[in-house]
Amino acid sequence: MQLPQTRSNIRSVFTFTNILADMYTNAQKPRQVYGPRGVTQSKIVQMRLMPAERFLFTKLKEKLGMSESSLSREIYHVGLPTFLAIHGLTEWANAIQKAFSA
Prior knowledge:
There is one protein chain. The protein has a domain at 65-102. The chain is 60% helix and 0% strand. It contains 4 helices and no strands. The chain has helices at residues 7-22, 51-64, 68-86, 90-101. The longest helix is centred in the last third of the chain and has 19 residues, at 68-86.
């Protein structure tokens, strides 16, 4: 038995095929990436880069196969001791970290 071609039947078939086209299979689901344990996600730290700096950052990220956040954290950890030393804040930062760990 075939349904009569009414507007509502056509609409429901069209909607159903759209839903099927948008469904994921397990192989198509994007892999969830987790950050290091203890990293807070409640506050994002933003940084503005000049176009040449952004281009270099993007190329470096691609070359190393790292995410933007992972590369940013690594650059931060490498550069922070130098920054603190230039401003004479190394001992202060050590005291802050010790207080945080206590």
